[in-house]
Design goal:
Largest sheet: 7 strands, antiparallel
Number of strands: 20
GO molecular function, one term: FAD binding
Family: Belongs to the oxygen-dependent FAD-linked oxidoreductase family.
Pfam families: BBE, FAD_binding_4
Protein name: FAD-binding PCMH-type domain-containing protein
Strand order of the largest sheet: 15-12-14-13-17-18-16
Radius of gyration: 23 Å
Helix content: 25-40%
InterPro entries: BBE, FAD-bd_PCMH, FAD-bd_PCMH-like_sf, FAD-bd_PCMH_sub1, FAD-bd_PCMH_sub2, Oxid_FAD_bind_N
Oligomer: single chain
Length: 521
């Protein structure tokens, strides 16, 4: 009887997919009515609500996606538990309205709360109310909800045990859900890997409205949600993470070098030294104008750091006078683009809001072969051109733990052989004109093609860039071939496996944005 029972179970599963997946145009009135029937009214913000604009803007970081021309959601749902998320998904499926999911609002293209298509009807699931952090001190683990920010996560961990931490990004207002979904690079990745390398379990709602944990979702889906990009496979509500050890004192420094002070020679050397240093030391570099700023965090004391730098990177000329010693939590409160705000109260990490004073655009690259001294001379010349004044690049070293992880262990494939990642950033005031700045970034990015990885030219999904490609939708489903160009740049050989998982768990492509994983049907 075992085989007939399994067959019957399979047929019933297929039939339930069929019932919930019947082609349906969007019925916005029916959708919002369904939400009203299933959810408390205070969790639903429709466009007619007096609070709608404030809730929408609450975690938007980029004002160029908050203009009168921006396609806004039909409504915003602010769930406080898993059942609310399940109800919203089922209402959306039943009435043909897709949901976009926002945790911290840092999506560089704003795809978690807006649509580039002017006529799309969609809702937003804003997870800001799902932000609890529960630390298990005896296991050195924690459960963190996707709506928590990195700052809230870091604060909760360190206040529970000052010698525990978690490897993730440097910006404290980034949402956990987005950070983990794309990989999660940061200053401790050379020691402990990406955020996703330290995820033990997760709870999520799939496109059928089911609540899953790791055991129920299975290995393929658990693999896919750890680095396969947000908003492709369902709504991840919470993550169980492995915490890592940090010493009582860490040391940071910030050393700037101009061209006259040998910045090019030092930077040329850093390309090979940075990824090969002891894994408890990370030195990133910010290049802006005619200066290279070397920014470091070391999991140890100043004296030990000075000795290491003297042996391994004497060209930088670092001395004990450059050291700033503090707890790991205090270091997390710093701005790791400048190491400004020394002595900032740790409570700044609990501030979820970010200003919308500046619009920005971001691109990314990976470097596998060191750039020559002549190449760096040419790069610095770009920072003298019109449009460059508000732009910079950030170089973050890989190596260490990152070299030990196979490219297909998680969807994030940029592992062994990567020297560093480049993040290109340009800013301009408000939501106004961008022509000169955008032209500079596009030209500079084009020029850099000769110096970075090729076939494919790799990119980081958490530094989302719609310029490298968008999904092609046919019969209301994104096509695999239409996503190949951007998919292979973000995920390389893992793109096909991700699309296979998508076909298994969301064949009708309910969870979709312009760079979500398409189903390989």
């Amino acid at each position: 009887m075992a085989k007939p029972k399994r067959l019957l179970s399979f047929l019933l599963s297929c039939f339930s997919w069929y019932l919930i997946s019947l082609p349906s145009p969007p019925y916005p009135g029916e959708f919002t009515q369904c939400l009203r029937e299933k959810l408390p009214s205070e969790l639903i913000y429709e466009q007619s609500s007096s609070s709608f604009t404030d809730v929408l803007a609450s975690s938007i970081k980029n004002p160029r996606f908050f203009t009168n021309a921006t396609t806004r959601p039909l409504c915003i749902v602010t769930p406080t538990d898993a059942q609310h998320v399940q109800a919203a998904v089922l209402c959306g499926r039943r009435h043909g309205v897709r949901l976009r999911v926002r945790s911290g609002g840092h999506d560089y293209e704003g795809l978690s709360y807006r649509s580039p298509r002017p006529n799309e009807v969609f809702g937003v699931l804003d997870l800001a109310n799902l932000r609890s952090v529960s630390v298990n001190r005896s296991e050195s683990t924690a459960w963190v909800e996707s709506g928590a920010t990195l700052g809230e996560l870091y604060y909760a961990i360190a206040k529970n045990n000052s010698e525990l931490a978690f490897p993730a990004g440097e910006c404290p207002t980034v949402g956990v859900g987005g950070q983990f979904s794309g990989g999660g690079i940061g200053m401790m990745m050379r020691k402990y890997g990406l955020s996703i390398d330290n995820v033990l379990d997760a709870k999520m709602v799939n496109a059928n409205g089911d609540l899953l944990d790791r055991d129920v979702m299975g290995g393929d889906l658990f693999w896919a949600i750890r680095g396969g990009g947000g908003e492709s496979f369902g709504v991840v509500l919470s993550w169980k993470i492995q915490l890592v050890q940090v010493p009582p004192t860490v040391t940071v420094f910030s050393i700037g070098k101009t061209l006259d002070q040998g910045a090019i020679d030092i930077l040329t050397t850093w390309q090979l030294v940075g990824p090969s240093l002891p894994d408890d030391l990370a030195i990133r570099v910010k290049v802006q104008g005619q200066e290279a700023l070397f920014l470091a965090m070391y999991l140890g004391t100043c004296s030990s750091l000075v000795a290491t730098m003297g042996r391994r990177f004497p060209e930088l000329g670092m001395t004990s006078a450059d050291c700033r010693s503090m707890t790991w939590l205090e270091s997390a409160a710093l701005s790791f683009t400048t190491l400004a705000n020394i002595g900032t109260p740790e409570e700044v990490l609990l501030n979820r809001t970010g200003g919308m004073s500046f619009s920005f655009k971001v691109k990314s690259d990976y470097v596998r072969r060191p750039i020559s001294k002549a190449g760096w001379n040419d790069i610095f010349s770009w920072f003298t051109m019109n449009g460059s004044a508000s732009g910079y690049i950030m170089l973050e070293p890989h190596g260490g733990f990152m070299d030990s992880v196979p490219a297909d262990a998680t969807p994030y494939p940029h592992r062994n052989g990567v020297l560093y990642i480049i993040q290109y950033l340009v800013f301009w005031p408000g939501d106004g004109g961008t022509a000169l700045t955008a032209a500079w970034l596009d030209g500079f990015y084009g020029f850099m093609g000769q110096h970075v990885s090729t076939n494919p030219r790799e990119a980081y999904v958490n530094f989302r860039d719609l310029d490298i490609g968008q999904n092609v939708v046919v019969d209301d489903v994104s096509t695999f071939d239409g996503g190949v160009v951007w998919g292979q740049r973000y995920f390389m050989g893992n793109y096909r496996r991700l699309a296979t998982v998508k076909a298994a768990v969301d064949p009708t492509d309910y969870f979709r944005n312009e760079q979500s994983i398409p189903p390989l049907l």
